[in-house]
User: Fold PD-(D/E)XK endonuclease-like domain-containing protein from Streptomyces davaonensis.
Amino acid sequence: METSTEDVEPSVAAEGVTAQAADGAAATPVVPTAIPPASLSPSRAGDFMQCPLLYRFRVIDRLPEKPSEAATRGTLVHAVLERLFDAPAAERTAPRAKSLIPGQWDRLRESRPEIQELFADDPEGERLAGWLTQAEQLVERWFTLEDPTRLEPAERELFVEAELDSGLRLRGIIDRVDVAPTGEVRIVDYKTGKAPRPEYAEGALFQMKFYALVVWRLKQVVPRRLQLVYLGSGDVLTYDPVLADLERVERKLLALWEAIRTATETGDWRPRPTKLCGWCDHQAHCPEFGGTPPPYPLPVRAPESAEGAQGRMGPD
Ligand code: SF4
Assistant:
């Protein structure tokens, strides 16, 4: 889902760094106009794996992005599914859930005024009506996949944060946590898109294993089940992790974080063009599309230091 609070919240300013002159010559100390990343969320980890330059634009430059209909619909549907559990179990019906949509849509528009522009060119409201109907269909489909009258979530929209031994902070928002009477934990995430083909399931599970790692670090409990509920296609993808899975994810995240730190210090954020570029809001700033990134807002280390940092990179 699209979230903002789970995203990186940098808090540590770089120290002892210098601006690199255009000719690579010695540099003078500068005051950074941004702050380096201090933690990692599944979304931003995914950004870096997709394209390091995209990560830079989102986390360091914080370039604005246009709201999209699909992402906004996802946010709306998530809000409805979360709020439905406020009702007594027997009243968690599809009509009740659909009745929540107008109010949640109003709340969303109030809290994020930029969303207004989504339908600014739709004065008759026809496109908005179709969009809301699609949201209703997604909500209805959920009832074919899960039965909320038989669920009592332990947590909804749970913000989690844990620090690894290395000092790396992981954070994120879990859509739903179910805890069985036996104490077994199930982590559930709703997706308003379609389930990936089997060969891409591992990528889809990365986010869930990330959350499982955070829960394990926080509670010393390995979640019994990870569950992705795809409302777009009506599929449920589950995975029962073992400790070795979480240890593997932790090693992967540490390697990723090392690569992010190196790029942050050197200012070397490579574009990695893929077919996903079609969804990127930043083509105008991307060299792959003839654009120029904005001036790097952080100091960079001198070249020899940068090479040293690069040399430390690699799989753990
Ligand atoms: S357009 Fe593609 S290559 Fe360029 S920043 Fe966006 S995702 Fe990366």
Remarks:
- Residues 51, 53-54, 271-273, 276-277, 280, 282-283, 286, 288-289 surround iron/sulfur cluster (CB under 6 Å).
- The longest helix spans residues 243-266.
